[in-house]
Structure formats: structure tokens, C-alpha cells
Amino acid sequence: MADLRINFAGIKSPNPFWLASAPPSNSGAQVHKAFEAGWGGAVWKTIGAPVLNVSNRYGAWHYGGQKMLAINNVELISDRPLEVNLAEIRDVKRHWPDRAVVVSAMVESNPEAWRDIILKIEDTGADGIELNYGCPHGMSERGMGAAVGQVPEYCEQITRWVMDVARIPVIVKLTPNVASVVPPAKAAIAAGANALSLINTINSIVAVDLDTLEITPNIGGKGGHGGYAGPAVKPIALNMLSSLGTDETVRQSGLPISGMGGISTWKDAAEFLLLGASSLQVCTAVMHYGFRIIEDLCDGLSSWMDSKGFRTIDEVVGKSLHRISDFKDFDLSFRAVARIDPDKCIQCNLCYVACNDTAHQCIDLVDANGNLVQPYAYDVRSNGKHEAVSTRPQPVVREDDCVGCRLCYNVCPVEDCIKMVELPSGRASVTWDQLSKNRAEVTTDWDAMKKYRQEEGIEIH
Amino acid sequence: MQIIRPEEVLAEYYPPLSDHEALVEANRCLYCYDAPCTHACPTHIDIPKFIKKIATENVVGSARTILEANLMGATCARVCPVQELCEGACVLNAEEKPIMIGRLQRYATDYVYNRNIDVFQPGPATGKKIAVVGAGPAGLTCAGELAKLGHSVTVFERRELPGGLSTYGIIVLREPVSVALAEVDMVERLGVEVKTNVELGQNLSFDELRSQYDAIFLGLGLGAVPAMGIRGEELVIDGLEYIEASKMNPQGLEVGQSVVIIGAGNTAIDAATVAKRLGAERVRMVYRRTEAEMTAYEHEYEFAKNEGIEYRFLTQPVEILHEGGKVTGVKCVRMELGAPDASGRPSPQPVPGAEFIIPADQVVKAIGQEKPSLAQTLGLATEKGYIRVNDDLETSLPGVYAGGDCVRAKGSASTVMAVQDGKLAAFAIHRKLVPQGVAADD
User: Which end of chain B, C or N, has fewer beta carbons within 10 A?
Assistant: First the structure.
């Protein structure tokens, strides 16, 4: 059995899964329940400045009958009195000494306000503090949350105020609503933060109601941008996570990163670990299905680690980071083609239409005698399942013409039916970077490019 | 004694899909390209397109997609043997279960009929007049398609109600009468005039039709159930009449306690279902061949067995026994299969001396229908007794077209085949009458 315990900047928990600072960690009763279900930790819903919330605060994006591929919200930080939150945090930590209890905080941008909240949090016995520099709505209009996270100087200044006071680990939570998360991360590092976390939610408008023409969700006739989260944001979060892991300054700082953004299953969790996260936070999946999902998060991750021979979380963290690369360093001579397994193929022809309408026109329909046929070629009087099925052509890739774009692979509804097969290109390995250095003219002049292609035998379809 | 309410026991078997069920099922569809379901459909409805329109909640557009290819889409959604057609060809048969295409089609077409939404308008008038004889699925489709193209169409129907077998010959469990009549109304709103109680050769002259109209379409259907030529046959009830009574006057339909149904096709199963559901204790189907040669669809056979209907295979009725004008039983002879006959199926031969009696107080026969008798009367060339037509559905008389069961010399008779005939004939008529015109999608 893999050891799932983590020690994240000195904050220990029996597994890497923490509730993210959000509605699921809004109260002591909820966090007690989550810990009973097996959660390794919780980042308390942000406490700090006084707020009032509105109704219809959560929107969602549904697609193809799947509910809540993403959630969007205009909920602010905790609207429960500060003293109530602090008392419940103290109570939870006393009951659950082995779990990570981290408190998210956000106050006005002045050193006294931050000093005051940090001391109050430390007084509860909490294990750590997360600085919420990410909330994209409401709080940012008041100069807090993303308004801080988007400006590295503010981020650094406030983190310094906090680090001057704090005696427990401090995590700086980054907003994704920036061109790059690296400058704010560097600011946090410069200010002496103990750890980073990302991503907070993304600016979004989730829908417009086609009956009323109102914004969804409709808040008394108005609506606006809210924070977007859930399964649909995972690829964005993974990219931002890896941009930290591949940055020299961030890497050398050695700061651990708590990853979040669409983690719903143990597979998502493993991917975040492989790209450098060493603790994991979950919100939308819990809001969709409840605390019970922790069982499979741990069970699935543990089984996968066992199957791969990983004994500890540390052994997994960052294992795929070295493969993150820029386009200029990709091997231009790498060649893969699509191959359709006719035994698995159900002849839905989704690959055929995708390739022929929108990709590179290298899939044919071939009948039982090996003849090319056009779609809809059957006679108007032909009918019945036997005729339809027995005369149905098979999609076949013309491998010589296939550029290996991988679109067919992505649209195929059948598991393992289309494979991307690596084939020798017959050309020496070369990257765009090398080409720019060795044959600079190729990168600026189409005639030179044509000549180069002819030399190398590169045919463009 | 249990009180049997016909409106309950004979009510439509499948409930409509709820909006949610339809959405979930529609989202399961893969949206195949050049989909096999569309190929398998005799009218080639663009099935993935209409299903995706359900998924995007464009249900009116979905119904239009269906009705563009098949004007009787609400009937076909109910009566088509989908297991043999669209659903049988669904690529998801390979992995899980096919999409419920028929029920989704019903969802979309019911949506527009329940809301009185017309998805088509009559075309700009061409000044051409066409007579359609027979208001069954073939005739109504032909009439509706011609009206969409701007022609003036009159439909002549010998029965009191239009709709043909959809109205009279399909049990309510599969299709309520109101569905068939809603399709008639839709065709009428396209400007088609439907005249009922008018019968060709009786109070309607073929020669007058030919002189007054630019083209004629014959959707005559088939004739009566043929005679078996056995003693006591006058006491046997015609299966189609039995079904008709169950639709038009179920309270007045007298059902026996022990009913014998002669035949094992789909109409026989429908008659047996009516008998069973209206209170018959035993319903026995007698068929002179075996399970393997039955013309009933597999799913219909399964349905019949689930209804508690019994089968007596290799059994040939030779006499209806009766006493005082009441049926008391059916004398039968056991059969055995011999050499293949003209239909290619092994021909059943009586086993000498193997006679036995099945007690019964009601006997219904559903052994197919006679060939269209009008064909000869009208002087039309025939093929195996059916009206002979060319690829344009034109008969041996120029300008006279025919379609539906009355031309079904090849293939099996079905509503959807009749609809395709009606549609193709309409396009052919239009091409001929308006040569510069282009038909919709043939």
C-alpha cells in the first residue's frame, strides 16, 4: 500500500486531499463531516472583511447531458461572523489533530488589518494560512483578492506584512486571471512565502437565458462575471501549475505547490502530482457529489501508485515536469499516423467526417471489395438493417497522406479503436530551434523552406 | 368478475418519453456520419440530425427533419419494425443498446401535433390537379408532398374515415386513432381536399378522374382476407374487421372465451392481443408451418408470448365445428414440412389421419390479404397480382401512378415502404408536370 501522507511546508496530513477554501469548508460542522469521511485537510472558507452575499450565486455549465462540467459563482468570502469562524476552527483542530487545518484570509490592504487577522488565526491552533489573492469578483472591486494577485508589487507587499507576523506556514494562492502566474509567484517568493497554491477561479459569464435574455444566474435582473471552476478548467490549471514547475526561480525556491482546479477523480489528482503539486485541493467535485468522493480519490490514487511502484507521494511529485517543453524544442521529424482497428470499429464515420471536413483529408471509405465509396452512395430504394449493415464501408487511413494530427483519435467513441502509431520518418531529428540556428533562412523565407523540404523529403498535404 | 375497460387495456403500450428521458437518450446518440440508421430507414430520415435537434432542444426543427423525409412520421414512429430497420442498424448495437430512435421520433412528432404547429406550408400554386385514390399512408404522403410543391390535390377514400390501415388496421396499443387522424389533418391544412365514402368503380369513375386530373396516384391497399375454402368458414371472423372493431367500437366487440386465431403474421398477433386483453381465457394461434417460417417480426412474436398467447405450429384448420350457429371448435390436421414451395419456404404437408380438435368459441383468420382486385378492372398491368409500376411508380397507364401495399410485389408490405412510395411518386409526378421543377431530395 502506497503511503499517502504528506508534509507540505510543515503542514502534515494523512493524505494529500484537502477541501479547497470554498463553500464545502464554510463551517465547523461541514469540516467535521468531511474529516469523518476521510479528507486529509481543509482550507477554511476565507475569513476576513465583513461581507453580504446574494441569492442565485452559483451558475453552471452543462454539456451534452452532463451536469456541471463547470461551476461559476459570485459568492464572496465567509459571511459568518469572524468570531464564530475562529471558534469553530479552534474546535475542529482540537478534534482532528492529525488533519491539516489551513485558514484562508483576506482583509483590506493595510498591515494592521493583516496583522490582526494573522494573530487571530494563529490563536486557533490552525496549521497554516492561505492568502486569498485570487477571488475574482466582488472582493476585487474592494481592492482585495484578484486585485492584489494581479499586481506582483501588491502581492509582494502584503505577503511581507504577513510574513513579518506569521509563525505558521503561509501559502500564497494565485489568481489565474493574469497573462502569466509566474510574476505573482515570484513576488510571493521574494516576500518569503512558505508555499504557493493555484488556481483560484477564472473570470466567466456562464450563460444568457434565452427566454428572458437575462444573465445566468439572474440576480434581481442583473448578472456579472463570476469565478469559474470544475472539470472544464483542469487543463488550464495543469498548464499554470507546470509553468511554475518549469520556471527556474520558482523551482530553485523549493516552495511546495498546492494544486487545484477541476480535480474530480484520482486520475486528475495523479496528473496534478506529476506536474509538481504536492498537496491537492478539491471543491467543485465535492459540491457536485458530496464529501464521500474522498474514498475513491484515496483508493484510486493508492492503487495507481502501487501499480507504478511509487511508495510515497514525494516520489510522484513532479515526475512528468521534465517532459514539459516548448514547441521550438519538439522533434520536427517525429512521425505518427492514425490506424483504425477494423475489428473494433463500429463504422460511425465520425473520424471520416472530422478528417475530411476539418483536418487533412486522409481517411477513405472502403467497401468489402476494397473499392473506394462515397458517403450516402446507396440507392434511394435500399433499406433495412441487413442492407445497411452489410454494405457499410469501413473507414481506412491513407497512412502516406496522414499528418498524424490526431483529430480522428480524439473523436473516435470506441476505446482503443484508433491508435496513433509511431513510424520512422526517415529524417534526422531536428527542432525548430536548431533549424533557426543552422538554417536561419528556412525560418524566414518560403523559397528556402521549399528547398529545405525538397532536400528532406517533407511533403505537406 | 373483473371489469375490463377497453380504453385501459387497449391503450397505447409505450408511454411517451418525458422531456428528460428524450434529452438523455438523444445525448447518447453518437451523431454518426452517413449513418446506417438513415440507410436502413426506407424513407431515409436523417436520424442523427433529428436526434441532435432534440438534444439541442430544437424540437420543432427535429419534427421538420423527420417529416421532410417521412410525412407519416408520427405513425411510423409507432408502427415501424425499428428492430429490423433503423434501430437494428444502429452502431451502438455493437457495444450496448441501440438508440430508441422510434420513441424519439414519436417525441418530436407528437410535440408538433400536440401544439398544432405546422412545419410545412403549401407551395406556390402550379395550377396542376392531381387525384389520389386511397387515404392510407401512401396516398396521404403523395398528396401532402404534392401540396407542398404547389399542386391542387384531391384524395378519394372509400371508407368513412381517412388514414387507411393507420386508422382502421393497427391496434390502439401500437397507434391510437387520433395519431392517424392528426396526420390527415396536417395534410388537409396543406390544402389537400379529402373526400370520404367515395369508391373507385362504385361512385367514382376512373375515366372521369383521368379526364379531369393531370395525374392520378393509386394507393389502393389490398383486398379482403382470402377464403380458406373449409366447411364452417362463414362463422370465421376477418382479423382486420376484428381489429377495426377494437378501435372503433371496442365495447361492441364480442370476444370469445377460447379464441383460435388462424395465421401467425403481425395482423394475427394484433388480433390475438385484442382477444387476450379483452378477456379471452385462452388465445391460440394456429399456423401450418413452424416458428422459423412465420412472417411476424421477432419482437412481435416475443410480445405475443409475453401476452400469454399460445402457439400451435404445424397445424392446419380443416373445418370449423359449430352447433346451432355457434362455433364449438376447430378441426385441425397435423402437418409436416416438405420440399420448398414457391415462396422458398418448406411446404407443409398434412400427416394422414392426424386430425384433432381445438375447442373454441370464436375463430379469427388473419392469413394475409387478397391482391388488389381493382388492378384488372382498371386495365392496369400486374406483377404477381400486384399493380406493376416502374422506378417512378408509374403504372402501365401513363400519368397513373401507384404505391403502397398494392404494388408490393417485392419486399414486405409496411407503412414506411408505402410512405416512401408516396413520396417518390409525388416527386415523379412533379417532375413530369413541372419539368423545370426540382424535387426536394430524390
Answer: N
C-beta separation of B12 from B171 below 8 A: no
The model scores a pTM over 0.90: yes
| Whether A303 contacts A324, CB under 8 Å | no
Does pLDDT of B351 surpass 80? yes
Whether A348 is catalytic: no
Under 8 Å between Cβ of B184 and B163: yes
Query: Helix or strand or coil: residue B361?
Result: coil
The b-or-e profile of B397-429 (16+ CB within 10 A means b, else e) is: beebbbbbbbbbeeeebbbbbbbbbbbbbbbbb
Interface probe with B: pick from A379, A381, A385, A390, most Cβ of B within 10 Å: A385
Residue A25: count of CB within 10 angstroms of its CB? 30
Under DSSP, is residue B28 helix (H, G, I), strand (E, B) or coil?
A: helix
Report how far apart, in Å, the C-alpha atoms of B427 and of each of B142, B162, B392 are: 9, 23, 9
Confidence label for B345 from pLDDT (cuts 50, 70 and 90): confident
Helix (H) / strand (E) containing A339: strand A336-340
Say which residue the cell 518560403 belongs to.
A446
Longest Cα–Cα distance of chain B, Å, equals 70
Residues B116-173: pLDDT tens digits? Answer: 999 999 999 999 999 999 999 999 999 999 999 999 999 999 999 999 999 999 999 9
Strand order, beta sheet including A202-204: A58-63, A66-73, A226-229, A202-204
Give this complex's ipTM: 0.90
* B229 torsion bin: left (phi>0), alpha (psi -120 to 50), beta (else): left
The C-alpha atoms of residue A403 and residue B382 are separated, in whole angstroms, by 58
Cβ contacts from A onto B, under 8 A = 77
Task: Identify the DSSP state of B80.
Answer: S
pLDDT tens digits, A261-275: 999 999 999 999 999
SS3 state of residue B261: strand
pLDDT tens per residue across span A101-137? 999 999 999 999 999 999 999 999 999 999 999 877 7
Mean pLDDT (whole number) for A27-42: 98
Report CB contact under 8 Å: B89, A389.
Answer: yes
- Which stretches of chain B sit within 8 Å of chain A by CB? 23-24, 27-28, 30-37, 39-42, 44, 55, 83-86, 88-89, 91-92, 94-95, 417, 420, 424, 442
Compute the mean pLDDT over every residue in chain B, rounded to the nearest whole number: 94
Closest CA to B293 of B326, B323, B263: B263
Distance CA A163, CA B344 (A): 93
CA distance readout (Å), A206 to A53, A72, A141, A224, B72? 19, 7, 20, 9, 40
